[in-house]
Design goal:
Layout lengths: L3 H21 L3 H12 L6 H18 L8 H21 L2 H21 L7 H18 L4 H6 L5 H25 L5 H9 L1 H10 L1 H7 L4 H21 L1
Helix pairs in contact: 1-2, 1-10, 1-11, 2-3, 2-12, 3-8, 3-9, 3-10, 4-6, 4-8, 5-12, 6-8
């Protein structure tokens, strides 16, 4: 059973992340990963991947009809390619260096999509985003930004439901690959399961926020979440 301090600090991080993801479409990994990595590095990335698998199920229970599945096949293909590379990074690259690299990749993607009038969503961009997502998601639990940035101009329900489908498949793939490589200790899975009550509570609390953001404010909120998480990840590991 996880220690009480983990349930307190990790639980609050998971609660905050679930509120963000429940309203924007991503965030539980972005918010919780830096905190859990800093305080409980031995529980990463498995603990975050477990909650990253469960939370999207709650989203789909409400908004599954809005999911855009046509292009996700190419993103899934990219994720298949990127996932083994993420497993290798976990084993080969020091945690701090890896976190800074992931933060820089996210910031670069954010800059490109923010300053461009419109980033095309086609086979090439979806596959490339999938590769990056598979790598960063498996290595750190943060795999949402590359895909989210491609869907940033869609409606709130479309963004959340589409990302939820991708997150479920991606988390399953990452967990399976880590387990097969011997990089998923049981204590990480148990820790993730212990955080689930906080995750479900956060999703329920996010209801009013979803309605507020869906009134034309979702894209701004999404970009803020992605950018802030990357900056925090970089600064924390450099300092």
């Amino acid at each position: 059973m996880p220690h009480l301090d983990f349930l307190l600090f990790g639980g609050l991080a998971a609660l905050a992340g679930a509120i963000v993801q429940g309203s924007v479409g991503l965030g539980v990994g972005l918010v919780a990963t830096p905190i859990v990595t800093m305080l409980y590095p031995s529980l990463m990335p498995g603990a975050i991947l477990v909650i990253a698998l469960v939370l999207p199920v709650a989203t789909l229970a409400q908004e599954v009809r809005h999911a855009e599945l046509r292009g996700l096949g190419w993103a899934f293909g990219g994720r298949l390619v990127g996932t083994p590379f993420g497993v290798w990074l976990v084993a080969a690259v020091p945690g701090r260096v890896l976190s800074v690299l992931i933060g820089l990749v996210v910031l670069a993607a954010l800059a490109v999509t923010t300053w461009s009038r419109e980033v095309p969503r086609n086979r090439g961009t979806l596959a490339a985003a999938g590769v990056i997502s598979g790598t960063t998601g498996t290595a750190s639990g943060i795999g949402g930004p590359p895909i989210a940035l491609l869907y940033q101009r869609e409606s709130g329900p479309r963004v959340r439901a589409t990302l939820a489908v991708f997150f479920i498949a991606g988390a399953l793939l990452s967990l399976t690959t880590l387990a097969a490589a011997g990089r998923l200790p049981v204590r990480q899975v148990v820790a993730g399961l212990a955080l689930l009550p906080f995750v479900i509570t956060g999703f329920l609390v996010a209801g009013p926020l979803r309605r507020y953001l869906d009134a034309g404010r979702l894209r701004t909120a999404l970009l803020i979440v992605v950018g802030t998480s990357a900056v925090v990840l970089i600064v924390r590991n450099l300092v």
